[in-house]
Amino acid sequence: MNLTIMFSICSGDECVEWAFPSVSGAKISSDSYALPARSQSEKATMFSDEDFLQLQKDQYAHDVRHHSDITSLHKTERLKHYGLHFAKYVGRLAREAEESKPIERTLVDAFLISLSAANTLHQRLGDGERSPQRSRRQVDPLRTLADAVGRFADACEKIDHLEEFVALARRANVDVMHWIVDAADERSLDLVSAATDRRKELKARCFYLDN
Description:
By secondary structure, the chain is mainly α. It is built from 7 helices and 2 strands.
């Protein structure tokens, strides 16, 4: 059977596509984390603004109680810590089958960190915040996440240079969260239930705290 392979190269909001006929019988593989070719406006929203607010409240309570080593840091140092987490998760996803932790675990971990980052940035997720539409139709969908994580890291670097960083960090964090929600939706992953279970695991590490 002859198939046509579509390639897209995107810069900002502009994308250029090429179509190439494939060799008959050739196998086409897709990344396990690949997202569907749908624009942000075409996707159903998984969380309402109120849902996001409750998720941020739950995460704040968890962080204060079980991650005092991080919440005691200055906010700028906390952001750098979260930036390192984001970079770690991109690495996990890039390793694919060579990574021991399942993709679902990485998505949940990134979800929790994005909530923590939003609280540190005094950023209310949802609340009308929507990124300019970025096409998901890329050769490698992981680039969308890597782009957002790179911009978050850029914001963290600007802190040391006394340059404006808040707006850049907030926008990057929104894009990270949207990627996570899209990826979870693609895999039929219930982020709320998974996040609750993950918090319980992390809570168990703090054996010295009363319930």
